[in-house]
Amino acid sequence: MIRAPCRRSVGHCRRPAGRHRRLVSTGQGPYAHFVPHLNKVRTVLSGGRDGEPGSRSSLSRLRIALTVFFALDGFMFAGWVVRIPAIKEQTGASASALGLALLGVSAGAVVTMVFTGRLCRRFGSHPVTVVCAVLLSLSIVLPPQTHSALTLGLVLLVFGAAYGGLNVAMNSAAVDLVAALRRPVISSFHAAFSLGGMIGAGLGGLVAGGLSPAVHLSLLTGTGLLVTAVTGPALLRHHAPVPEGTEREREPAETVKGTAAGPRRLDGRTRRLVVLFGVIALCTAYGEGAMADWSALHLTQDLGATPGLAAAGYSLFALAMTAGRLSGTALLERLGQTRALVAGGVTAALGMLVGALAPSASLALAGFAVAGLGLANIFPVAIGRAGALAGPGGVAAASTLGYGGMLLGPPAIGFLADWFTLPLALTTVALLAGAAALIGYSARNASADPAESARPA
Fold it and tell me: Does residue 253 have a pLDDT over 50?
């Protein structure tokens, strides 16, 4: 009979080390399913020498570096967005021509997201993150050099490709780090993105009146390259930490097909689970896109708000989402992923119903804030779960679906507003948030391993 594992820490257990090694190597006995967790405790808590992937100081430095890259991503993208009106005037593009040119960002991002997962598997998520950050910094200076909608669309393809690649690579690295830390900290990275976006938009608005787009975006290029040069080595010095026993490390014959030397091919069950979490991300991103483009118009057109009050609608939504993500780690640790996801979806649905159907602007603003709190952690949880199931490819697939939701939201709201009314069209955000909660609950036991899914939660 195999005795229960020693309750003391692994490093101070008096039992012979060989017994632990035999248990790890054979995987037999009634405690075989406990061994991966034992290995993770030894990998993360005991750690190795400073600089090894499992050491505390190394994981802390990786977390700081990744947080900086998430913030940089939001900062750069927001800096570009606030200069779109000036770029439109410079190129002389009509509203429809500008809309087509801006699709270059989306097209470049979606196409690159599909392939970035493969690049991360081949070269590692850390080098790909650094390279994409450099490309994003260099490409953001290109739009002010264009003088037609066609050339603007072409350079935005490059910008969008770098942006999409950076998002997949960063999230893949974040999923690895979350597994090593054994704490649900992925929301903190997305909070850094939101904070970076708020700072970038605020500074961009301040300098827009005194600096041309070319000078402003050139400064962003310098800032991006400087931050990457300072922070990038922390990623390049360390491989992504993937503790033993995580779902991506376990490769049962029924889940991963092919030899150990061959490429990993996920079975149909795992693919369906990744798509499921991608749909949850889509439902969330749909709401973000709709709020960004239609909240101000709803407040002015339907509720008679002043332009200043209407502009505060999306700002309040974004601020609430940032606050929700900052508190996301504590929320996930307290409630768990499934309960946090379901609670977030229900909260967002109720908030958007109030925001869309409220008779006054003040009540609508309160509803938007509640919706932001509810949506805050759904996207990070969905992306993280897809990455835990399928690695960088799962992150890429879920991110592509999620980004598709952000693209689908604004035009869908527009068509529905023409057919019905704008308030009724905005209730689709509540509908999809509720759908995300329902899908999240149905996937509460989702695992790449059918045996694990069968275990009670």
Answer: no
- Residue 147 to residues 88, 137, 138, Cα–Cα distance (Å): 9, 21, 19
* Beta carbons of 340 and 377 less than 8 angstroms apart: yes
CB 284 within 8 A of CB 402: yes
pLDDT of 382 strictly over 80: yes
Are 346 and 374 in contact by the 8 Å Cβ rule? The answer is: yes
Are 97 and 151 in contact, with CB atoms under 8 Å apart? no
Nearest Cα to Cα of residue 42 among 23, 31, 55 = 55
Q: By CB neighbour count within 10 A (0-12 exposed, 13-18 middle, 19+ buried), where does 449 fall? A: middle
Residue range 305-327: average pLDDT?
83
What are the respective helix, strand and coil percentages of the chain, to the nearest 5?
80, 0, 20
How far apart are the C-alpha atoms of 335 and 325, rounded to whole Å? Answer: 14
Extract the tokens encoding 451: 């045996």
CA 342/CA 444 separation, integer angstroms:
10
**DSSP secondary structure letters along 172-235:** HHHHHHHHHHTS--HHHHHHHHHHHHHHHHHHHHHHTTTS-HHHHHHHHHHHHHHHHHHHHHHH
Per-residue pLDDT of 123-166, as tens digits, reads: 999 999 999 999 999 999 999 999 998 999 999 999 999 999 99
Which residue type sits at 271?
R
Structure tokens at 97: 């021509």
DSSP element (H, E) containing 266:
strand 265-266
CA distances from 256 to 251, 385, 450 (A): 6, 18, 12
Determine the 3-state secondary structure of 274 from DSSP. helix
Count of CB atoms situated within 10 Å of the CB of 47: 16
What CA–CA distance (Å, rounded) separates 134 from 172? 18
Q: Angle at Cα 90 formed by Cα 86 and Cα 95, nearest 5°?
A: 75
**Out of 58-62, 263-267, 452-456, which region has the weakest mean confidence (pLDDT)?**
452-456
- Selected residue with higher pLDDT from 216 and 102: 216
- The pLDDT score that the predictor gives to residue 446 is 62
- Could you give the CA distance from residue 439 to residue 68 in angstroms, rounded to a whole number? 32
366-370: long-range pairs with CB below 8 Å, 24+: 368/291, 368/295, 368/313, 368/314, 368/316, 368/317, 368/320, 369/316, 369/317, 369/319, 369/320, 370/320
Residue 146 amino acid letter = T
Q: Would you state the structure tokens that stand for residue 210, as one six-digit string? A: 């005194």
Residue 78 near residue 130 (C-beta atoms within 8 A) = no
pTM over 0.70: yes
Q: State how far the Cα of 228 lies from the Cα of 65, in Å rounded to an integer.
A: 9
